[in-house]
Amino acid sequence: MSNNLLAGKVGIISGALNDKSIAWKVAQKAHEQGARIVLTNAPLAMRMGEIKTLAAEIDAPIIPADATSVEELDKLFTEAQGHFGGKIDFLLHSIGMSANIRKGKSYGDLDYKFFQQTLDVSALSLHKMLAVAEKQDAFNEWGSVVALSYIAAQRAFLDYTDMAQAKAVLESIARSYGQRLGHQRKVRVNTVSQSPTKTTAGTGIAGFNAFYEYAQKMSPLGNAPAESCADYCISLFSDLTRYVTMQNLMHDGGFSTTGISQEMADLMEKAGE
């Protein structure tokens, strides 16, 4: 249902790979709420995914950009503003990749070149995006930036390896740039720490099913689905959250503040019998 929360607003959404992607659902919801959108992704991801289907559905142009390249990001923001005929109101950073995870490297046996790539793609890309936007003065006042994170930025999770550090850096960049852009243009910058979600990227992590089922049993509300995460992002793009900035916002059904659930306690008691 549309409440026109984003009527008149325009923005850039990165990372929509297929209809399982949170970014895909954010784009659909933003369109439903009255926004005009530019979609972007790395050329390789575009070849692997189905972004053209989404672009046709929401009548959005696609501007390819490698988010690790300042030159390509400069082109992205220039062309997006040209398409909209003005500055942008919101930006979704939904970008993450670890070759170490893809290749099954354990935390004690990381390839450090891959590690640097993980940090560049999954975290420094946010800084590069915002630095380019700042230099171009690309945001309207009271704009909003949301980057997707995960609780492994604060806690140790088996098999999440170097992505844990990437998410921690991502959240730190959001705080630092939130302060900077807030002073400059009243632009707010937040991260959303989402439940384990059955996206293409998520299910590629070894042990993901265990992550998912454990969080499901621990969370009073259960794992937050991708559609609900998209709704939350829309609220953060809207004027209803103008004074929320520099926060890591937990969207996890209560997982992050639950010590132990009755369901987990029952399972442990049965295991000990």
TrEMBL record:
<keyword id="KW-0520">NAD</keyword>
<comment type="similarity">
    <text>Belongs to the short-chain dehydrogenases/reductases (SDR) family. FabI subfamily.</text>
</comment>
<dbReference type="GO" id="GO:0004318">
    <property type="term" value="F:enoyl-[acyl-carrier-protein] reductase (NADH) activity"/>
</dbReference>
<keyword id="KW-0443">Lipid metabolism</keyword>
<keyword id="KW-0560">Oxidoreductase</keyword>
<feature type="binding site">
    <location>
        <begin position="21"/>
        <end position="22"/>
    </location>
    <ligand>
        <name>NAD(+)</name>
    </ligand>
</feature>
<dbReference type="InterPro" id="IPR014358">
    <property type="entry name" value="Enoyl-ACP_Rdtase_NADH"/>
</dbReference>
<dbReference type="GO" id="GO:0006633">
    <property type="term" value="P:fatty acid biosynthetic process"/>
</dbReference>
<feature type="binding site">
    <location>
        <position position="167"/>
    </location>
    <ligand>
        <name>NAD(+)</name>
    </ligand>
</feature>
<feature type="binding site">
    <location>
        <position position="95"/>
    </location>
    <ligand>
        <name>NAD(+)</name>
    </ligand>
</feature>
<dbReference type="InterPro" id="IPR036291">
    <property type="entry name" value="NAD(P)-bd_dom_sf"/>
</dbReference>
<feature type="binding site">
    <location>
        <position position="15"/>
    </location>
    <ligand>
        <name>NAD(+)</name>
    </ligand>
</feature>
<comment type="pathway">
    <text>Lipid metabolism; fatty acid biosynthesis.</text>
</comment>
<dbReference type="InterPro" id="IPR002347">
    <property type="entry name" value="SDR_fam"/>
</dbReference>
<feature type="active site" description="Proton acceptor">
    <location>
        <position position="160"/>
    </location>
</feature>
<keyword id="KW-0275">Fatty acid biosynthesis</keyword>
<dbReference type="Pfam" id="PF13561">
    <property type="entry name" value="adh_short_C2"/>
</dbReference>
<keyword id="KW-0444">Lipid biosynthesis</keyword>
<protein>
    <recommendedName>
        <fullName>Enoyl-[acyl-carrier-protein] reductase [NADH]</fullName>
        <ecNumber>1.3.1.9</ecNumber>
    </recommendedName>
</protein>
<feature type="active site" description="Proton acceptor">
    <location>
        <position position="150"/>
    </location>
</feature>
<keyword id="KW-0276">Fatty acid metabolism</keyword>
